[in-house]
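Entry for the shared binder. Reason: the reviewer on the internal report wants the predicted structure included alongside the sequence.
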Amino acid sequence: MYYCKNCGEPYVSDEAVLCVKCGAGKGLGTNYCHNCGKPVTPETAVCLNCGVPCYTQPPANAKSKLAAGLLGIFLGQFGVHNFYLGYTQKAIIQLVLTIVGYVLCCVFVGIFFVMATAIWGFVEGILILVGKINTDGNGIPLQSDV
């Protein structure tokens, strides 16, 4: 369960994008820990109650949401966006499926492997751009480039 960083109220679901109490966007605010809901100061780097990092702004090593999304859309069948975000196991699976698909194209069944992996990567690219996938493999929020 996640808590609003602005007012400390729990979100109604993990997919919520706004707090129903204060209307703040998910992840916005510096008054409360997103993990436990306890008060924190804006300068707090780590919640003293639960030990989770309290990111008030994207850390210096935050990955770009736009770059990850575009990599997913254009090179997603090779898993490039997942390598970029640190989801190495999923990236290797996408890359292997694509290679196997190209090898099996002479038997016609490979076309389905290639198409399925391309669609998978394309959909993940869109999900990254709209914010449904919003953290990298280490749990660090993606940096919005807007």
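Summary line for the report: The mean pLDDT is 86.
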